[in-house]
Amino acid sequence: xxxxxxxxxxxxxxxxxxxxxxxxxxxxxxxxxxxxxxxxxxxxxxxxxxxxxxxxxxxxxxxxxxxxxxxxxxxxx
Length: 77
What we know:
This protein is mainly alpha-helical. It contains four helices and no strands. The longest helix has 16 residues, at 15-30.
């Protein structure tokens, strides 16, 4: 999956899922380099996100909406 296809996938998300993706990307980009996280190249990041989208598309993961609902119920937020 290339950058254009990944961008299209992200843009087609629901507003809630899109905001969650943007929030995660922003949080990761704010982290200092010495925090133990591996810094990915653009191609590596595209591959990681593509793999995540494939898992989501096949139902191997829960949607952000389902996770958010579960967290709200669990922690009464």
